[in-house]
């Protein structure tokens, strides 16, 4: 071999080695850019947030076993219990008193005892009643105490209890039995023998305390679609107040604008030819009104959100941390999502932020629709928060959390993946500026937000509950409504109460009003309430005294009493309203957090209504009261079935006490009027149907805290904007190679129904 050949081969070998080294180095760098970043350390001592943690399934079971062995009365599983039985209706966390919790969190005091709140229905007693027990300590209960009288000022009457699944089954059996008395009518009106009809409850149940008389609306039941849009025009009034199911009765029948004493009378009118019947055919599944089945094959996939280096938030037990935020989260089976001990940069901003109630109030010219005022807490806002759909309800790569509950059964149930947590890129700058004069530069920050979300399906409606935490130190709370509208059979002057959305379907007008509790602790527990707004003053021009100018000025006011701080619904309120601390920021302004409400609420029920006091929280878009341990919630699950003598009346919270330098709570109502229209078929869309509020820092800091964000972008005309070191946006092309391995899609939400 010649020297020339050896040199050529040697050169090729060196080139090959160099190329391999370059490939290996490139391969080594790519994983490094995709490696998960170490998560920030929690600013709360590990485990402290467990004082707010929902009960585990094992804790619930321990409470059930304790009660079964220590009450001295027979207890029937609520899933089988008749009204004349005793049963455990629900078990949930008994949240400790705030003073105890703060001593533990802030002053190294003893950890509060962990306790449960158990609700029992005692139907098998001389005086049937609802009793609430606090049971503890967990995980091994050794005591129970009756807290009913202490909480509500007296015993809770038995008729106020929510309707159980077993009770609905017995009602349905009675209705089916009564429908058999009108066979020819059912064949003519509905192509039915009654078995393909489904009932929908209304509420409340009657006109006075003690009533348990409910209108049920009948619909064609078509598998795989929402029956709520297929009313057949038939509604029945059932009296189910007696402890003995055999004594329940069908009191009245409504069909197509007429009332009858019974289904037998209805049948007789039909046979005699005295009844006008609208003949409906059983709708086929492929063309039924409201079908959600896709009409076209899938197209190309849309944008996918992912974290190139893994989540930038941490979830440990019931606490989430994210870029200075720290939040303890949970779920009440009745009232839904609840957050505690919300801190930003180590300082508590909110002690409690919780959903209280969701009201849906309807109008119609049919009895079921016109009498409906759903208080969804009594049905179970948290209980019916089912598994979320990965990639649609929440981003595919979100963190999904299971929630446990015990209601209407002695066995805990689990709603898997029913709460999700994710960082959301809103594709909007949080702040930005492009400088085109003097010096040329760009500075900005993406609006990335931590989102905690759960979705409740409450009969026909789906409510999307969002709690969002921004880099500016702001908290945003938002609810969207979607799902099916509720409908009535279209007859007579139906369009006085909504719009026709199908051949015989009236989309009935209704309002959604949502109530929240916000226990703000701004730079400490003791706060005052300050309003600010603008006025104009007419002054002579200082430089031209023959002329005047209209000069806006700032009007500040400290509100001193609760009555001053109760702002009626749909009445203009000050544009700036803040919880203020006695401490000042660097610029000598009180450190404050502003409440900013975004709402399009309908009209509140007139105050002379016999049931208005049960929803008197709806009188106010905002009411600020002194915090009291004996006023933990604005309503009660017992208000639904006895709104005429409410168990909890929010209006009584407002009694003109001083609110200067006190521990205060903001009670916020948001909502919207919904007049259904053709575009609500098949479903109401979320666009335009979202309301909520913000908690925004107002002189709380010395500057916008987001200036410390590592996501900030700045470059000038003198820099190489394509250099990754100078401009983080130039690094995104390499980050895009870090597409994560997505887990296979799975859904088990149908298994727990």
TrEMBL record:
> Per the UniProt entry, what is one GO biological process?
amine metabolic process
> What post-translational events are described?
Topaquinone (TPQ) is generated by copper-dependent autoxidation of a specific tyrosyl residue.
Enumerate the Gene3D superfamilies for this protein. Answer: 3.10.450.40, Copper amine oxidase, catalytic domain (2.70.98.20)
TM ranges: none
Q: Where are the annotated coiled coils located?
A: none
Checking Pfam families in the record gives:
Cu_amine_oxid, Cu_amine_oxidN2, Cu_amine_oxidN3
For the Copper amine oxidase catalytic domain, which residue ranges apply?
305-706
Active site positions, chain numbering = 376 (proton acceptor), 461 (schiff-base intermediate with substrate)
Q: Which EC main class describes this enzyme?
A: oxidoreductase
Which positions fall inside the Copper amine oxidase N2-terminal domain? 75-143
Record domain Copper amine oxidase N3-terminal: where: 161-258
| Cofactor(s) demanded | Cu cation
Q: What's the superkingdom here?
A: Eukaryota
Where 2',4',5'-topaquinone occurs, residue numbers?
Answer: 461
One MF annotation (Gene Ontology) recorded for this entry: quinone binding
Q: Where is this region: Disordered?
A: 288-310
Could you tell me the keywords of this UniProt record? Copper, Metal-binding, Oxidoreductase, TPQ
What is the UniProt remark on how the cofactor binds and its stoichiometry?
Contains 1 topaquinone per subunit.
- What PROSITE patterns does the record point to? COPPER_AMINE_OXID_1 (PS01164), COPPER_AMINE_OXID_2 (PS01165)
Q: Could you name the Gene Ontology cellular component terms for this entry?
A: plasma membrane
EC code: 1.4.3.-
Q: Identify the PANTHER family for this entry.
A: COPPER AMINE OXIDASE, RETINA-SPECIFIC COPPER AMINE OXIDASE
Tell me the protein family, please: Belongs to the copper/topaquinone oxidase family.
Q: What is this protein called?
A: Amine oxidase
Q: Which organism is it from?
A: Cinclus mexicanus
Name the gene behind this protein: Aoc3_1
């Amino acid at each position: 071999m010649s020297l020339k050949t050896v040199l050529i081969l040697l050169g090729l070998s060196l080139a090959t080695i160099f190329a391999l080294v370059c490939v290996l180095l490139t391969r080594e760098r790519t994983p490094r850019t995709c490696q998960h970043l170490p998560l920030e350390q929690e600013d709360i001592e590990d485990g402290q947030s467990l004082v707010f943690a929902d009960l585990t399934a094992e804790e619930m079971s321990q409470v059930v076993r304790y009660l079964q062995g220590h009450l001295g009365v027979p207890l029937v599983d609520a899933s089988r219990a008749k009204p004349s039985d005793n049963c455990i209706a629900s078990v949930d966390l008994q949240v400790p008193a705030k003073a105890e919790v703060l001593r533990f969190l802030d002053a190294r005091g003893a950890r509060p005892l962990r306790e449960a709140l158990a609700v029992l229905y005692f139907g098998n007693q001389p005086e049937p009643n609802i009793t609430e027990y606090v049971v503890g300590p967990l995980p091994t209960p050794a005591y129970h105490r009756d807290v009913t009288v202490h909480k509500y000022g007296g015993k809770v009457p038995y008729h106020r209890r929510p309707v159980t699944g077993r009770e609905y089954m017995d009602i349905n059996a009675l209705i089916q039995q009564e429908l058999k008395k009108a066979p020819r009518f059912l064949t003519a009106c509905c192509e039915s023998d009654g078995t393909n009809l489904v009932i929908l409850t209304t509420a409340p149940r009657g006109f006075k305390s003690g009533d348990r008389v409910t209108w049920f609306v009948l619909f064609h039941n078509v598998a795989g679609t929402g029956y709520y849009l297929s009313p057949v025009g038939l509604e029945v009034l059932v009296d189910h107040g007696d402890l003995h199911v055999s004594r329940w009765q069908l009191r009245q029948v409504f069909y197509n604008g007429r009332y009858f004493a019974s289904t037998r009378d209805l049948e007789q009118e039909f046979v005699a030819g005295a009844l006008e019947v609208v003949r409906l055919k059983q709708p086929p599944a492929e063309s039924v009104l409201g079908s959600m089945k896709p009409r076209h094959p899938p197209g190309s996939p849309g944008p996918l959100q992912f974290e190139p280096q893994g989540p930038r938030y941490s979830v440990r037990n019931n606490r989430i941390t994210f870029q200075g935020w720290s939040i303890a989260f949970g779920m009440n089976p009745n009232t839904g999502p609840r957050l505690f001990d919300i801190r930003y940069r180590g300082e508590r901003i909110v002690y409690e932020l919780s959903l209280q109630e969701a009201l849906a109030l309807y109008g119609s010219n049919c009895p079921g629709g016109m009498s409906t005022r759903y208080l969804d807490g009594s049905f179970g806002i948290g209980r019916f928060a089912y598994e979320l759909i990965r990639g649609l309800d929440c981003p595919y790569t979100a963190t999904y959390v299971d929630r446990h509950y015990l209601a209407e059964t002695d066995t805990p149930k689990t709603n898997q993946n029913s709460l999700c947590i994710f960082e959301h890129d809103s594709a909007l700058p949080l702040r930005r500026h492009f400088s085109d004069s003097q010096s040329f530069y760009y500075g900005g920050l993406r609006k990335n937000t931590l989102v905690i979300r759960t979705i409740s399906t409450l009969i026909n409606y789906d409510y999307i509950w969002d709690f969002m935490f921004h880099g500016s130190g702001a908290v945003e709370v938002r609810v969207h409504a979607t799902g099916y509208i509720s409908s009535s059979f279209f007859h007579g002057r139906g369009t006085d109460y909504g719009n026709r959305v199908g051949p015989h379907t009236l989309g009935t007008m209704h309002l959604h009003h949502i109530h929240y509790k916000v226990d703000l602790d701004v730079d400490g527990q003791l706060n005052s309430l300050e309003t600010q707004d603008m006025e104009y003053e007419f002054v002579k021009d200082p430089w031209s005294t023959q002329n005047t100018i209209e000069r806006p000025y700032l009007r500040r006011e400290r509100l001193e009493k609760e009555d001053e701080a109760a702002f009626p619904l749909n009445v203009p309120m000050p544009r700036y309203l803040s919880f203020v601390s006695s401490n000042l920021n660097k610029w000598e302004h009180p450190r404050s957090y502003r409440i900013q409400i975004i709402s399009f609420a309908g009209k509140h029920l007139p105050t002379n209504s016999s049931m208005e006091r049960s929803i008197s929280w709806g009188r106010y878009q905002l009411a600020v009261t002194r915090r009291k341990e004996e006023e933990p919630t604005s309503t009660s699950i017992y208000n639904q079935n006895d709104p005429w003598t409410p168990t909890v009346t929010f209006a009584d919270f407002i009694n003109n006490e001083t609110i200067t330098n006190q521990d205060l709570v903001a009670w916020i109502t948001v909502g919207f009027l919904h007049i259904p229209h053709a575009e609500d078929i098949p479903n109401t869309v979320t666009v335009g149907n979202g309301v909520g509020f913000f908690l925004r820092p107002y002189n709380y800091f010395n500057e916008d805290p987001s200036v410390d964000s590592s996501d900030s972008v700045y470059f000038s005309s003198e820099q190489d904007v394509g250099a990754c070191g100078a401009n983080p946006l130039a690094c995104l092309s390499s980050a895009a190679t870090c597409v994560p391995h997505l887990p296979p899609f799975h859904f088990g939400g149908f298994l727990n129904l």
